[in-house]
Design goal:
The complex is a heterotrimer of chains A (326), B (231) and C (700). Helices cover 42% and strands 14% of the residues of chain A. Chain A has helices at 6-13, 31-40, 61-70, 86-98, 134-147, 178-188, 201-214, 232-241, 249-261, 266-290, 307-314; strands at residues 17-22, 46-49, 75-80, 103-107, 163-168, 192-197, 221-227, 294-300. In chain A, α2 crosses α3 and α6 (178-188) packs across α7. Chain A is globular. Chain B has nine helices and nine strands. Chain B has helices spanning 9-16, 30-33, 39-55, 73-76, 80-83, 95-102, 148-151, 178-189, 218-230; strands spanning 2-6, 21-27, 61-67, 88-91, 110-112, 114-124, 127-132, 168-169, 172-176. In chain B, β6 (114-124) and β7 (127-132) form a beta hairpin. In chain C, the strands form eight sheets. A five-stranded parallel sheet of chain C has the order 3-2-1-4-17, sandwiched between helices. A five-stranded parallel sheet of chain C has the order 6-13-7-8-9. Chain C has a four-stranded parallel sheet with strand order 23-22-24-25, sandwiched between helices. In chain C, a hairpin with a 4-residue loop joins β15 (382-383) and β16. In chain C, α8 crosses α21 (482-489). Chain C is elongated and about 100 Å long. The chains are: A alpha/beta (326), B alpha/beta (231), C alpha/beta (700). The B-C interface holds B 8-10, 23, 28-29, 32-35, 38-41, 43-44, 47-48, 50-52, 54-57, 63-68, 75, 78-79, 82, 122, 125 and C 1-3, 5-6, 9, 504-505, 507, 509-511, 514-515, 542, 544-548, 611-613, 616-617, 619-620, 655-656, 658-660, 698-700.
Amino acid sequence: MKCGSNLEKVILSGQPAVTAELGPPMSADPHEVIKKAQILKGFCDAANITDCQTAVVRISSIAAAVLALREGLEPVMQMTCRDRNRIAMQADLLGAAALGLKNCLCLAGDHQKFSAAGRLKGHPGAKNVYDVDTCQLVGILKKMRDEGLQEGGDKLEVAPKYFIGASWTPMGDPLDFRPMNLMKKVNSGADFIQTQGIYDIELFRSQMEKIRNMGLHERTAILGGIIVPKSAMMLKYMDSSVAGVSVPKALIDRMAKAKAAAGEDKKKAKELQEQEGLKITVELIHQVLETPGVKGVHIQAIEWETAIEGIVKAAGLYPRPTFPVE
Amino acid sequence: MIVGTQKPIDEIWSMVRDSKRVLVFGCNTCVAICHAGGEKEAETIATLLRMRASQEGKDMEVNYLSVMRHCEPEYFEPVMDEVKTYDLILSTACGVGVNFLADRTGTIPVYPGINTSFYGAVQQPGDFTELCGGCGNCILHLTGGICPIVRCSKSLMNGPCGGTKNGKCEVSDEVDCAWFLIVERMKQLGTLEKLAEVLPPRNWSPSTHGGPRRIVIEHLREIEQQEEKKG
Amino acid sequence: MSGESVKEKRESYLERVAALKETRPYSPCRAACPVNTDVQAYVGLIAQGRYSEAFEVIRSVNPIASVCSMICHHPCEQACRRCTVDEPLSVRHLKRFALESSADYRRSKRKLVQKTRNKSIGIIGSGPSGLTAANDLADLGYQVTIYERHPVLGGMLATAIPPYRLPRETLQEDIDDVVAKGVEVKTNCEIGRDITMSDILKGHDAVLIAVGLSQSRSLNIPGVEGPGVLLAIPFLEDVAFNRRPDLGDKVLVIGGGNVAMDVARSARRFGVKDVEMVCLESAEEMPAWKWEVDEALEEGITISHRWGPKAVKREGDKVKGLEVVKVTSVFDPEGRFNPTFDNSQTKLIGADTIIITIGQMANISFLKDSQIKVDERGRVVWDPKTHMSSVNGVFVSGEVVTGPGSAINAAASGHRSAMAIHLYLQGEKIEGALPTYEKEKIAALPADVAEKINREPRIKIHHLPPETRCTAFTAFEFSYDEEAALKEAGRCRGCGGGAVVDTKKCMACLTCQRICPYGAPVVTAWSEIRPEFCQACGLCAPECPGEAISMVSYDVRELRDTMQSVVGGVDPMRQEPVIVAFLCTHHVGVQGFELQENVRKVPVHCTSRIDVIDLLKAMECGADGVAVVRCSDNSCKYKGIKNRVTARVSQAKQLIGMLGIEAGRIEILTADAHDRNSYAAVCAEFAGRIKEAGLRTAKS
């Protein structure tokens, strides 16, 4: 046991792990985090608390993670390389551990350019940091945890104990480099991996075959990413515009058909598509979990946290395992 | 070479508006090649400033001049007397030139006419691309000759982020993903397996993060100092 | 530009370019001209409608400019690099057009030159050589006296060139230029008859003998003595002074040179229907210029080639004809004149009059009592390096010493002798100090460049039909009208007037090498723009970021620096917008059409030469609108121009936009090069648009 988090325990138990996602608000009001935590609690083993995703300023991942923890939901704090140099990162990691956080997912982070989108002005002119990258951050966490050393080599009297995660885009360009990319993260010390959303199960399985050939599935716990589709439009958008995500035409057609069945009724169209989306999600969860080498799923119901309960139940993943308190 | 771009005329005007005699002073090396601050651009800016002065009813004399380089003092010498007759010098050299000249003009202000952008190459006429960040610690031998520090939007050192799409960066379809290029190039070179190694966090101190940089070549300085003593 | 002040930079600009030309290989036309007339320069000026300046360029080196505009054998045309594309430029006709178009200006410029030297020079003979020397020496401030045995000045030009080739009023323009400088003229003054040689020698500080070759050679064949056999020069003098000899019905001219042509064609103009020429040479070997031969044939003159004169046959006194013998060869294997005959082949060519035109020689009998040495073959002894005869202070020039040649060659000799006399009188060394006209020239047009040049045959000159022109001695050749002249001038590729790099400013950036449509620049440590490739379009100069490239001829900076005077005063109360229109000279010229008064035209060699700065400058000088009027693509003289000019106009629009000036005030317009009115039309339409948009006002 590296840190003793619930997520680590579920994975060690050999049962499929379920993680969800909680996006903090653009506000100093803690209630939204508390509300979302209550909705998710009991239906996932841990929930990722995003770190200013799309570079939009929100309650920090650490603070929101502590709020969730207080509600009894185990958080996975996220840490991007975009906003902090190695000094701030390590300081935050020490502080977060001191506050009781046990899971940390390392990512590069979306470029600040994306903060200006829709009605948001964001901070596209911000300076990004990228003092270290994802691999290096994973290595820093591991060094702190296992060697009790800071990146610079100074000793830590009490080392932070994290279950170290990293993101992985299995189907991004350049496709044949992606397995090596995962290997580097694993070599650096990633205990678990959460992947980018998977719709193209065939392609995912072929990438996983390479991962298995490299033996990586035994050295890290790969949780397949599931993004809950809400509409045909969303699927089309993800297919065309989200890097590393391709959506098979058959899935888009299914959603389109659901929409068409509602005729002119917009409200009904929304309902029918959401129903179809939930069906698709459950199918995808099964397909991902049936893929050899996969240890769980990471379900992202973006701004639709209420859907998690139904999905997890429909997928036969409820109730979530519990472990006696030490 | 150093690549720059001209500043908007409004911004330049705000610098010079209260002067009577302005010299637009071009540099005929790097910034000339990128059509930002050579003699031609200096003349163009001088013309625009005269037009602006006339629009605003200001009595302003604006001339232009250029020398080959603004980063070595000998190039200034023949024109320095002339330069010092102006109230204000708008330098269209890179920031190096502006700093360097400003050290030599006493009470006459030297202001920048261009924005100094990056170290780049001429991909094709009119197309200048940043290819080096001057980070002071080159790793191009590890990345197939393609710099991830300036050519990756996130300066990632161990591979691409998840934002690569069709070989392009998530920041823009116009920007190549450096890591896509690195992987392709190293495949071509047969050295892809080199990328398996995790590059550790980097020492950024030879870059600007280590404070202002200066390189002193001891053996050359020694000779110069001996000559100075003799002289 | 380092080291030069801003002020110096402006002032030295034109001089710098002029001096540059001297440091570079000459255009082939200029190098071929015996006096190095800068043909490329004046043709370009003609193309821009700058006729007075064209005259100045011509006259600066050639005091017999008008003469040459009619009779020059124009080696410039033979050297023209357009020969490898289609046909050479019609240089002589352009010269004639320029001189005729600037006649008033020329006359207004004639003035007395102050005599500042207190030395006098006597010149014997007033042909091209003597006249040129008189011109140069008068310019230098000497007192010059010309002695001419004929009642008119001009030597052979006045007395041996028939007026249908050289109208006397044309010759008179050249003579008047020289005489106006204050040259003393003594006509009807033959040495030995009216004055003695020793009087002349005593009367001057230096003397120039420039008497030419005024005596015809005769033939030593049976029957040549007696009536009915004439010599060329006396015959041509009869023509010159309008004395018609009795020629009978059939004239036979012996000889195949240019003088023979003059004689034969003059005989036709005296009304003789049957004029035949007989010469040793074949049609290809004849020394006469081909165009002279062609014109003679048009006029019904027949030529018997490869027959040599053997005897004049007479019946009593009266000539019956010429017995001729077949020529087997004219030149020996070394190319020397050495005719051989087949005596078995003879024939009789019937004739009433035979005129012998087999060459001229000098008549220097007036020297027989002087110290001036004459060699055993009757030629004045001289030193070509100093132009001096055997007597100190007595100089010789022209054909009397150089042998037969062209008028312009004689003028070149006149220039040299004048300089020799000047140096002599100043007590300076002559040898090595005389002008030389042998100059390095630009190499042949590379084949790949020639391929990129549009085929445009030269504009033909109209002649009177042969039947009409043979009735009188008036000129039969028409001059170009303005439209034709401008069009023809536009054919010039501007050899030697193209791009030149200031190596002090060039940073070897490759811009010029990348954009040149003809591959002229080669950039190493700096750019070298190879003149044999350069077509003088000027596309490169405005692109050069270091302003290191200028054009040798008509650099646009000339325009930029004078833009204020082109735009003129802009009346704040004006009702009509002030428009500056940059027009390509090659198709529109500048005179060929009328623009409305408020459109100020700026002729440019090609719109490719216009810089963004020129457009801004026009706006700075107060223009309400600026138009770049391009010729349609299919008629543009150059390749690859359009996109770059368009891009520059776009940039200028963007820049004035930054000043809050409407971008539409600068536009690129296209006109149909084959319809001159379309240039005026697009300008008028643009002016209308600008008027609608409103006039510019100063904020203040």
